[in-house]
Known about the structure:
This protein is an alpha/beta fold and 394 residues long. Helices cover 40% and strands 14% of the residues. It has 16 helices and 14 strands. The protein has helices at 26-30, 64-71, 78-84, 118-139, 152-155, 175-185, 202-209, 221-230, 244-247, 259-265, 269-274, 280-313, 324-332, 335-338, 344-352, 377-386; strands spanning 2-5, 8-11, 20-24, 37-43, 54-56, 59-61, 74-75, 103-104, 144-148, 166-171, 190-194, 235-239, 316-319, 391-392. The strands form 4 sheets. Strands 3-4-6-5-8 form a 5-stranded mixed sheet. The protein has a 5-stranded parallel sheet with strand order 11-10-9-12-13, sandwiched between helices. α5 (152-155) links the parallel β9 and β10. The longest helix has 34 residues, at 280-313. Residues 258-277 have low confidence and may be disordered.
Amino acid sequence: MKYRIDGVELRIEPPGPDDQRVELTELDLWGAHTPEVWRAERFGGPRPYFYPIYRHGDLYSYSPLSLILLKGRLDLDRGFARQVSSPWFRYYSGTATVDREIERIGGPLDPTFRIKDTDRYIDALADALRRDVADAEARLPGTTNIVLCGGRDSLALLLLPWKNPVVVASGAPNFEFVRRFIAEHSPDFDLVELRDDDRSLLNLEMLVNCCRNRLEHCRYGPHLAKLADSFDRKVVFWQGSLADTFTTPYWRRYRHKSRGLKRLVERTADKIEYRREWSRERAAVRQWRYFDALWRRGAMWQGAHHSIIRQLTGALTLSAYHGPAMREVLQSVDLFAAVPHDIRPQLGERLLGAPVAYPETNPGPPKSRFRKGHSHLKPFLKRLAALGVPIRRS
Length: 394
């Protein structure tokens, strides 16, 4: 099936003989430039905790839109529709999707609390970063790595021993910080300044989002698509997603909560207890809550954004902090014991072999104004109907 959206041809094909497995794994879908949709008898291996994987019957995809188009209709999920129609909607959290016959699979990590020493944890993080990137490059020979840079988490990726060519991409206001960092630490890397003033793919962005995120935070899509096209889409986009939530004490307060829930929490004794010295039991509970938030918030926000960029650009989009080796480290760490402070300067020094001069600030880009109002249910359904896709509401 072919769909032309914003001048882009979106081709969704049923799985062929090479796209079928008895047991499908996360690495099949997120380890290489794979087809949009797979067929499998079952899903195996570790359950996904960050990268989005969706299922309809025996069909699997990183994109709910691909499964909807392959179905040939949308069976609207009323509960999902209510949540994403709220004016407070920021991101959808849960296993449901806009289509009640399509579900997201996976769940939170299970901590074992084995790594309690800070130096050991830093060594494990550095080793996992190197291993996961090296494995990805070995699976994808002849591709160019495009590292999307802003703050410390993504800048640390420029200190890795890449084998394939590397291009760095960054947008204002972080661009100047990234330029200085490259000049000091990675002078051989080319730098591209990203711009976010192109509305040409707005309808496509709306569709591939499937009401999962507020698109005001999903920037640079058209520029990234042009960048991928300039390399014949033989690229991998790399990000440093969510690393600050397990390399700084931020993990202690990283929560999944709605605006209404936030007001409630601020009035509870739990908010007061949080400011006191922690007991070991409470610290363990907090880490369980953190892993739950990583699944319900981080994976539904940043993880889904990876799939949005992937479908917009036709290029694999990965986080160097969420590969198979890093997963084992995260499941093993006791964050309360191993992360008493921001350990990213130590991690950078471990990667480079010398002290690293990180920017003092990470201002981040402003929200996208022209995407405002295009994330909710009504504009999505209107655009889907324009493609000729029937919508069932009962």
